Amino acid sequence: VEGLVETEYGTIRVHEFNPGAVGGVPVISFHGMRAMKRVVEEWLPVGEAIATTGARVLVPNLHSNPHTKPRKLKGNDFSRIVVSLIEHASPKDKKAVLMGKSWSGKELLDFAASHKSMVEKLVLVAPAVTMGAKEVIVRVSSIPICLCWAEDD
Fold first, then answer.
1. I need a surface site. Which of 31, 39, 68, 85 has the fewest CB within 10 A?
2. For 21-43, how does the pLDDT look when each residue is reduced to its tens digit (9 = 90+)?
3. pLDDT computed for residue 83 by the predictor
4. Which of 38, 42, 107 is nearest to 79 (CA)?
5. Rounded distance, CA 90 to CA 46, Å?
6. What angle do CA 77, 128, 39 make, to 5 degrees?
7. pLDDT greater than 80 at residue 152
8. DSSP the chain
9. Over the stretch 57-82, which tens digit does the pLDDT of each residue have?
10. For residue 153, what pLDDT band results from cuts at 50, 70 and 90?
11. Residue 45 CA to chain centroid, in angstroms?
């Protein structure tokens, strides 16, 4: 189901699987930095597969709003968008499983370090981190993390 989620930066398009699902922790998957259709939609098959378990899954398109495009975001902008999406998907518990690839993987790692209570688990596919990320990784060591390699990144 294609829908819209309001953020302080305006509305963004979100593909949502099982939007009416109650209970359980929602999953939110973020694309990489590039605006290519294959990048923006790369989580859709994964979201569909996860949804077969009954989970609510959101796949936002940050390129759908000129103010939320990855290259436009500065400082805490990405974190504020993530908070808006978590509050939309889990208004009561305010917690989600977060998945990100490349640029968004790095951003989610930073988000988790400062918002641990909102992160149930992290799935990071080829996160764009540097060796300086060691401190951040230590700060999120209490969160279950799945770290994956990607052939295309």
1. 39
2. 877 899 999 999 998 898 999 99
3. 97
4. 107
5. 20
6. 80
7. no
8. -EEEEEETTEEEEEEEESTT--SS--EEEE--S---HHHHTTTHHHHHHHHTTT--EEEEEGGGSTTT-GGG--TTHHHHHHHHHHHHH-TTT--EEEEEETHHHHHHHHHHHH-GGGEEEEEEES----GGGHHHHHHTTTS-EEEE--TT-
9. 999 999 999 999 999 999 899 999 99
10. low
11. 15
- Here the tokens at position 131 are 């060796």
Which residues lie across from 119 on neighbouring strands?
A: 96
Q: End-to-end alpha-carbon separation of the chain, Å?
A: 28
Pick the closest to residue 145 from 117, 128, 115, 124 (CA basis): 124
Q: Which residue matches tokens 């209970």? A: 23
Q: Residue type for 52, please?
A: T
Query: Tokens for 109?
Result: 């790692």
Question: In which residue are the tokens 């060691």 written?
Answer: 134
Which two tokens mark 119? 């992160």
Q: Which two tokens stand for residue 42?
A: 């790369």
